Amino acid sequence: MSETFDLIPVLPELFLVLAAMALLMAGVFRKDEGFGSTTSLAIMAMVAAAVLVWAVGGDERQTTFGGMFVMDSFAVFAKLMVLVGSALTAAMSVSFLEREKLGRFEYPILILFATVGMMMMISANDFIALYLGLELQSLSLYVLAAYNRDSVRATEAGLKYFVLGSLASGMLLYGVSLVYGFSGSTSFEVLPRIFGGDHPAAPHLGFIAGLVFIIAGLAFKISAVPFHMWTPDVYEGAPTPVTSFFAVAPKIAALVLFTRVMVGPFGDLVDQWRQVITFIAILSMFVGAFAAIVQTNIKRLMAYSSIGHVGFVLVGLAAGTADGVQGVLVYLAIYLFMNVGTFAVILCMRSKGRMVEGIDDLAGLSRTHPLMALTMAALMFSMAGIPPLAGFWGKFYVFKAAVDAGLFTLAIIGVLTSVVSAFYYLRIIKIMYFDEAIEPFERVSGRAMGMVMALSTAVVLLFTFLPGPLLTSAKAAASVLFPQ
Amino acid sequence: MLYVAAIFLPLLGSIVAGLFGRFIGDRGAQVVTCLLLGISAVCGAVIFKQVAIDHNTVTIPLMTWIQSGTMDVGWALKFDTLTAVMVVVVTWVSFMVHVYSVGYMSHDPSVPRFMSYLSLFTFAMLMLVTADNLVQLFFGWEGVGVASYLLIGFWYEKPSASAAAIKAFIVNRVGDFGFALGIFGIYFLFDSVTFDAIFAAAPGKVGATVSFFGIEWDALTICCLLLFVGAMGKSAQLGLHTWLPDAMEGPTPVSALIHAATMVTAGVFMVARMSPLFEFSDTALMVVTLVGAATAFFAATVGCVQNDIKRIIAYSTCSQLGYMFFAIGVSAYQAAIFHLMTHAFFKALLFLGAGSVIHAMSDEQDIRRMGGIWKHVKVTWALMWIGSLALAGIPFFAGYYSKDTILEAAFAAHSNVGLLAYALGVGAAFLTAFYSWRLLILTFHGKPRADEHVMAHVHESPAVMILPLMVLAAGALFSGWLGYDMFVGHDQQQFWGASILNIDAHKTMENLHHIPGWVAILPTVVAVSGIVLAYILYAVAPSIPAMLARSFNGVYLFLLNKWYFDELYDYLFVKPAFKLGRGFWQGGDGALIDGVGPDGVAAATREIARKVGRLQSGFLYHYAFAMLIGVAAFVTWYMFNAR
Amino acid sequence: MIAALIFYMFAGLAVASGVMVIASRNPVHSVLFLILTFFNAAGLFLLLGAEFLAMVLVVVYVGAVAVLFLFVVMMLDINFVKLKEGVLQYLPTGAVIGLILLVELAVMFGGWTFAPDVEALVMAPAPTADQVSNTDALGRLLYTTYAYLFQASGVILLVAMIGTIMLTLRRRPGVRKQKIADQIARTGKDSVEIRKVPSGGGI
């Protein structure tokens, strides 16, 4: 009856959970708030976890817990991205939250738990495991969205996110139950056997409906249109550090999960799911490009920007090939740094002792804070996909994969919408460089901010010269999902 | 390590001076860049010893740059004799110019920027010469282009400097376009951009053809010609030379470093580097010879009537580059590189000397308003004499060895084109000697023509400017004598190793030692006669030149206006381009594209954006509803489309 | 036959009371209908032979969650009528969408088939009821095959707890809490002081 499980592959997750619990106990029992020190320890824990991920994940694919948890190079790549994203955003939030008197020790702990959830999602090899990882992450995020409990906007954001998130989870579960009803299994190992191999079964319509529901549930998490409606409200309502966290790590984790689910268990049904993904991708790119134009709040703008980026990533997924998945991973890695850097700038937007969020408040930044304006300009150019900055290569690889897979229409729409989206990115640059300054920002940039900005700018600028390591590791990671 | 240091120390210096110039100050920037470049120069000398003298060819791979399909481009430093020669020339001349700039630019408000640009240029040039593939070479090529642009436009407040910088950049763009096409062509033909791979495969591609416009072209010739177009742009050959004289708007050390000694020779270097390709295309070599010879002669004629001291030297540079190219054209690559090296020394010397004169004359550049200052600036005067003697090819100065070798090679090629090149080259040698002494006499001798105020201020330059000149003068004196045996004499086979290829059909390098005696003596004779003529015209009977100019007004104006190249280009390209641009702008862009396109699309975009934005109502049930509609729509889609 | 009848009774009642949860005007009624839905669902579980789940559903959802809802609804003074005002105007569209989905699902389930060899694919077949009890079977699975999921659920609950405490707990200054240990530890000496009061004077 009794079986023992190999705990080595889950070591990073295990470590993070234990660290989170230890920090929780320490936080509860100490007298002061201990926000700063807890955050530093949490960041260290994440760094250690990243090292563990690196150490544990070899070239070989390992599974444990009866095949529910998988550790392969795809997971390693994604987990490293998630950990880096979480750690950077956590580091950025310290000074902001302390200034706003919002520092409480639960914040880093929730981030830790959310990160564990993401890592579980990434390594999920079974629908139940997927669901539990997703819920662990989502629940932490719901709480984080409402973190500033004295603010009506934040509370509203948290509540909206929670209700809609539950709806999405419900859809996902319904889809899983349909799939289970057809196949009798929820395992990612078993499902491909049904449609692949020597005697491929015809997918039943109910199964396809299940697939659609699963896609809908996951699309909510990556805020793809038409399941994106929560994004702008939550991004705007939540405290800015939380928003920056939302925009990076969970997006990456959910997209990676999405990719694994689509090309893993449903890999042989690519012709079926490609239709939905294509549609969602087009809508996302479209909404991301157009709705952002009329925004005046920079956080809302970033929400639409991330919707647009998700659309571009889905283009790579729609290709359904190893190249496409490689494009997805490369895009995500670049997206990670672009977004972290941009949010570092947004977090520095303060005047007269309070946070400002209007795009117009950036006016004249080039004269008051030339370095910050330069960083922002580089990031915006990159987001707009102007060569030779990193953002261009991200788009290049996904579109190339789409074209190679014969999805010309999708690629063309992608290029067109990225042109439209360049409009609002460039508008920010125009405001920074050519408009008269109204009210200069205070000099608040801490050491962490400066470092994050420098790092992201460096990545954005230098990727062109040194794309090798990222490309090769992404290629290796992507190839795991396509066993020959 | 040493090899890598030699290349990357200038970059480090550039970064330090450029980014932290504000913190370390003018003095700090000067010290840092000069020091790092000094180390680099010492490394360069060691490299020369190890690679060129001891024949240890090495390639140091740094990292992978682009990997896509069969395209495999890396960062690697390739050191063979050719590279080593270039490295030693570039680092030493650059070092001298750096030191010189400390004095020359001492009154400038933005010293760190200048030093940073200089070092950046040096790095890019070193990247160029150490490239082991065409793409990396192109990187350095464009890098020096950018640095050149920045330095010509260094005094960006001066409209003429800005205009000159833009002109240089655009004219180079034409050449670079050809170069880029050449690289594409080579990749298309050889499926690789790495030198070793290309050279290994080159003999097998002889006779390969490409079909274009329905005509079969020889593929190698096409590639070589395209590459040569790039070289023409960078090395200011006839047709694409117009930017070089204007580039004299930059500070004088820049002219010495970039527009005399190093960057403009990049074209020569590139063609020499590609010798295993050019050797298999007689047509391309013929074109190279013709263009080179024509440039040598053309630029020399123009140089005779210019009045700006720097422009005279600029045309002289142009002319000497022409020599190098026709040497290449007759397969005497070794002679071309030899001349490149000696020329780097004496031309940098001339430029820096001119800078010293300008410095002494309170920024006066017109030689008609100089004269008689030799008593006040004796050292500069002596150094300029050395430089001019070397340039004119007077025996036992550096230029004598290299230039004579080139002319002998042209004769020894035993072809019609070679003979033509020889004739033009001898003519140019005469003119060279003439304008050099015209410059010397008008500048230093005779009666002072400057006003008293200026004359009172004439003074010798500080030691920091004179010392580099001395070093360069030593080079101008001895480099030819020292290098002759190695570069073109009986040690050449061993010296060059595999870095330059001469196929058996082209035995110029051997033949040039077996030519009639008068061929070898003629250049010296005409040079001396040029000097004599200049002496007669400008020292003995100064009225004759004015009279000549009057009586041969047409010829004089033709030369003074540089054969009307600028006007021709203005009429052929610039004006129509402006007209076309205006037409496109107002008619096409303003009315058509803006009306329908951006303005129309922008209006539509805003409209759509507003509508999309309105969907975002803020109500929870709207959001939930949107999700449900989405799911329902997808399921419905599959109901009808799944099977 | 009877089993089928009872199934349809439970199922029908569950759906009907589910509708009433969102349709009734009085929020207290809504919660009561919710409780009824839970009971019916528990009945369905019983029919499937999952008596443990049925009991847990009643105990946890009815006994704890729904009752908590009831208290909250009664304590909060929310004008639910006003809250629901807008809903009616979306009802037609909503109904159409719902209907479409319903029809589609019906079509799907009408022609339901299973994957070939579905028996072989079932992950952890439950032992038959005559061998082990329901609770026993669940436990065996949960603590062995599904240990990972079980632990993960635990972490999720922990996060839920942290979240609720963080969002609601306020440490107001000046709030006095009962400290039982202190109370018990107090002795007469600590709290009572005996003073002699001289007659005619104060303390």
Explain what you see.
The complex is a heterotrimer of chains A (484), B (643) and C (203). In chain A, 72% of the residues lie in helices and 2% in strands. Chain A is an all-alpha fold. Chain A has one domain. In chain A, the strands form 2 sheets. A two-stranded antiparallel ribbon of chain A has the order 1-2. In chain A, strands 3-4 form a two-stranded antiparallel ribbon. In chain A, helix 8 runs parallel beside helix 11. The longest helix of chain A is centred in the middle third of the chain and has 32 residues, at 152-183. Helices cover 74% and strands 4% of the residues of chain B. Chain B contains 27 helices and 4 strands. Chain B has a two-stranded antiparallel sheet. Chain C has 203 residues and is mainly α. Among the domains of chain C are: 1-77, NADH-ubiquinone/plastoquinone oxidoreductase chain 6, subunit NuoJ (Four Helix Bundle (Hemerythrin (Met), subunit A)); 132-171. Chain C is built from 10 helices and no strands. The termini of chain C are far apart. Classes of the chains: A mainly alpha (484), B mainly alpha (643), C mainly alpha (203).
Topology:
The complex is a heterotrimer of chains A (484), B (643) and C (203).
Chain A: H1 11-29, H2 35-56, E1 62-64, E2 69-71, H3 73-99, H4 106-123, H5 127-145, H6 152-183, H7 191-195, H8 205-221, H9 230-237, H10 240-263, H11 270-290, H12 298-319, H13 322-347, E3 350-351, E4 354-355, H14 365-368, H15 370-384, H16 390-404, H17 408-434, H18 447-462, H19 468-480
Antiparallel strand pairs in A: 1-2, 3-4
Helix pairs in contact in A: 1-2, 1-4, 2-3, 2-4, 3-4, 3-10, 3-13, 3-19, 4-5, 4-10, 5-6, 5-10, 6-8, 6-9, 8-10, 8-11, 9-10, 9-12, 10-12, 10-13, 11-12, 11-17, 12-13, 12-16, 12-17, 13-15, 13-16, 13-18, 13-19, 15-17, 15-18, 16-17
Chain B: H1 2-53, E1 58-68, E2 71-79, H2 81-104, H3 111-130, H4 134-152, H5 159-190, H6 195-201, E3 209-212, E4 215-218, H7 219-234, H8 243-246, H9 252-261, H10 266-273, H11 275-278, H12 282-303, H13 309-329, H14 333-360, H15 378-392, H16 398-412, H17 416-444, H18 452-457, H19 463-487, H20 492-496, H21 508-511, H22 517-540, H23 543-551, H24 553-560, H25 565-596, H26 598-615, H27 620-641
Antiparallel strand pairs in B: 1-2, 3-4
Chain C: H1 2-23, H2 27-47, H3 51-75, H4 80-83, H5 87-110, H6 118-121, H7 134-143, H8 147-168, H9 180-185, H10 188-191
